[in-house]
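Let's see one such:

===
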Amino acid sequence: MLETLEVLEHTLGKAASLDDKVEAAMVSLSASGYTSLVYDYTPVVRSFEGDLMTPSHLSLRNVPDDMRALWCDAGYYQKDPVQLMAIRSTTPFIWSYRQTRDKTQLANFIRQDHEPVVSYLHDADLTCGITVPVHRTRGDMATFTAIQKGAGRQFVKEAREHLAVFGLLGQVFHEHAYPLLSEEERRTGVIRLTPRERECLLYSAEGLTAKEIAYKIGRSVPTVILHINSATKKLGARNRLHAVMLASHYRLLDE
């Protein structure tokens, strides 16, 4: 596995696009017996109300064609026990949906409402894998997951032998992948503010009045109020303070 990490670092440095980097990672993982790869990035892990957010970027390799639509559009991401584990874990972990055969912590996260995901992965024979959670200082998060389709009886035992190195592999991949994410992918796609709306909220967060903001940006007070009201409506906020809180939560005020 150490050889796989060395090879991956070299090939990732040469790969120009994010798609090429994902392909390079898949080739390296294949050498260790893994058949599928999932990499996702989420700028905001949970909504202001506490619901799990759908990732802004999702790369998939060697999975069923309908998986992207199910996870991103049909709500399967919110019902994925592995994602719930990743949010709570700072270290790589092994997971298996073969609960009668393998003993992993995944069993502690599976609930009745996760049944659509559990059934889907059993039908696709994607029941065993390793996930590396990458928690960043601003609260954003990525996960790097390798899956072994048709995993053998000794999967968990064998995976434990190189779990630490696999954790490094996931971290290295994300460091190479993150700079290639688009600006839109680094911000939540749930709400879109115009540059002026964002600017006015930024100054509001600093405690400036509408009159002071108008002086700062060289616009009239009614124009500033219009921008703030528009942002407040988009955010579904009750007032200006609530709008600033929501915008900050969704990282819309990040420089």
